[in-house]
Design goal:
The structure is a homodimer. Chain A is of the alpha+beta class. Chain A has 11 helices and 15 strands. In chain A, strands 1, 2, 3, 4, 5, 6, 7 and 9 form an 8-stranded mixed sheet that branches. A 7-stranded mixed sheet of chain A has the order 8-15-10-14-11-12-13, with helices on both faces. In chain A, helix 2 links the parallel strand 3 (about 65-75) and strand 4. The termini of chain A are far apart. In chain A, about 60% of the residues are buried.
């Protein structure tokens, strides 16, 4: 089976409709995923001090063990909306609980069993009449086929140009386990900013106490390892529901580790899809850092290189400008011996043990120009920890899109 | 007397020549400032782990009490040049000492009495034959008139479009004291990157033990409070020489504080000239942060807002996009109560105590579009500390210049 063919985990359904939050009626703006049984639910949320109402609500509700649904709207972020914003987020979960209970009265859902995400313009209130009308429609739209999942993924898009769904199925302890996710996030354009949302679903049986650190690890190696412009949103959220529909006792030991590895892979697949979809970007830049004392050190150096506008413009210009890359590493705030630093650009050694190496600039420049992928590999001599970080280049088109978004 | 009319402090001379480090012979590339008597010398240097040879040398020599000269070349940064780079930096100071000693044999100068700065391309060795021929020429060029000072300032320029010289003369304790400086730094374009150099000269009598904290304070409020792209260079250096030629005992108490205030002003004047000279930038953005617990908190929030590409592109597009500004403050890593945050853009209140305020977007947009200066004033409720931070907007022209620099 192809690893990336999309499969919804057993017992889950999904849907997406247009309810009128976005002005363009050819798009979708209300998404729902549902588990047919109570699921363990955990979340990782934005570290921005200014948190949107749905983030505040989900943070209160997770971790928990009886979640049934995640509802998400796009178009309005419900951020910087004060007490009314919190009432609106609460009402979204209550409306979903009510509609699901009506659809299946023998399995009533309580508002507290629903999580909520929003993305879009900041500082505007949700059009709750439209959302109230949309929720029964999206419940009616639920399905478990690929088309239903794609509608669900489309309904959370803002500046994304493609829906992002990824899935992996593996054998763990004699049972088939699936981890699937939908995500949104693209060029970080506009007042919705860098908002990145993801809902990851699995039918594996996982204890809440194991799910939280697993999601934290997966997010560190994926969504926390991408950046387009370093701007942390008010709404960034990654939610995980683990229903146990695959059967059996909660995973432990080697089985748990196998599931965590799959979770990391799915999150990485989803995360890399975000800078890959960077509107106005010509290159996906992978910064790989080896030889650090800790993974956190490696990630911090990778992020500092990835966030440097000088590095990003150099890649846009197909300029193998190693000085910008090495010196960005130097101000990451991580101690290292500069004389142990080496750098490869697209596999070509350009800097070795603190010293420039003669190389054919034209060849390396061509290798950048002729591919959408640019690989920067930085080697240090401080230890054995590594990390990868992904970003986009910085093009004139990016600036044009960001400067023109609103006015 | 106009505060900003340039005056060289008593006993100092300056000069600048072309010696051939730059390929364009219509420019200048070798600069010298000399004190006619031993001066206290202190420095503040780049925090980048990858430090250029002249930075390593000056760090060894300062603080000290017997400095006579600062020699600076532009065109080649003498960074990432290993042991040979350090030998070249040492030789530059020895050549200056030799030439000055020949010019005034009764006052011989030792190599250790000379400091050195370099800016330009990384990873190339200095053309020492050209520099060796240039040093006697720049010694012969020394003068104390405005033209000599301007040549000295021009000779440290790289992507700067204008020379940067600023000066203030004040009465302190019954004597006239002058603080003057030359600086370079502009659009942070190219492999010379964000390199910012400044030489600040004063005829005030200042003890070395007072000069170091004074310069650190002045740099925090000036050169550490500007950024164009957040990229810290391998060569950033601010040097201060205090000769005491104004006469009298070392300043203390209120007199010392008056001199420090003047030093801060001159450094601020020089620092703001750098983003003002941002090639490819249309706006100088001043971020003023009030109501923090500490100045460091306020500066950190100011820097985070100033470094956000989304804020910088919004200003380029004359977009009063308060959501980008408020949310950038939220990820600065400084705790604050979001419900106490207010924001003014060019004097217009757009966000008050955590809530958006209705305002005329067209009017505020016009105020951004019609002026080169944009003022962002963020108010918090954590205390009484304030800070200002300066940056440029991010335009498509900036990207074009940075992507095209080398290839």
């Amino acid at each position: 089976m192809p690893e990336n063919q999309f499969t919804l985990p057993k017992g889950f359904s999904a849907g997406g409709v247009y309810c009128g939050v976005k002005s363009d009626a050819t798009k979708l703006d209300l998404s729902l995923v549902v588990s047919d049984r109570p699921a363990v639910g955990v979340g990782v949320y934005t570290k921005n001090l200014v948190k949107a109402a749905p983030v505040l609500l989900d943070r209160e509700r997770t971790p928990g063990e009886r979640f049934r649904a995640i509802v998400t709207n796009s178009g309005v972020a419900n951020a910087c909306t004060g007490e009314r914003g919190m009432q609106d987020a609460l009402r979204m979960t209550a409306l979903v609980a009510e509609s699901l209970s009506q659809a299946a009265p023998h399995e009533p859902v309580a508002p507290e069993q629903v999580l909520v995400m929003s993305t879009g313009v900041i500082g505007e209130h949700l059009p709750m009449d439209k959302i109230a009308a949309g929720i029964p429609a999206v419940v009616a739209d639920l399905g478990s086929d690929a088309a239903a999942v794609e509608r669900s993924a489309r309904a959370i898009m803002t500046t994304d140009t493609v829906p992002k769904v990824r899935s992996r199925t593996v054998e763990i302890g004699g049972r088939r386990v699936t981890v699937s996710g939908v995500a949104k996030g693209a060029a970080m354009i506009g007042p919705n900013m860098a908002t990145m949302l993801a809902a990851v679903l699995t039918d594996a049986p996982v204890a809440a106490a194991d799910a939280q650190p697993a999601l934290a690890e997966a997010v560190d190696e994926s969504f926390h390892s991408i950046s387009v412009d370093g701007h942390t949103s008010t709404n960034d959220t990654v939610l995980l529901l683990a229903s146990g529909a695959a059967g059996g006792a909660p995973l432990a030991g080697r089985d748990l580790r196998a599931w965590v590895a799959t979770l990391v892979e799915v999150c990485e697949d989803l995360a890399v899809a975000i800078p890959t979809d960077g509107e106005g970007a010509d290159h996906l830049i992978t910064v790989e850092v080896h030889g650090c004392a800790t993974e956190a050190d490696a990630r911090r150096i990778g992020k500092t290189i990835a966030d440097s506008p000088l590095v990003k413009t150099a890649v846009a210009g197909a300029d193998p400008n190693w000085g910008r890359i090495v010196s960005a590493a130097g101000y990451a705030g991580v101690p290292f011996d500069p004389m142990e630093v080496s750098l490869l650009i697209n596999g070509a050694l350009v800097y070795e043990k603190g010293t420039p190496v003669p190389f054919d600039e034209a060849t390396v420049s061509d290798s950048i120009r002729s591919s959408r992928d640019t690989q920067l590999l930085l080697l240090l001599g401080e230890g054995h920890a590594t990390a990868r970080f992904w970003t986009t280049d910085l093009t004139a088109e990016y600036v044009r899109l960001n400067a023109d978004y609103r006015t």
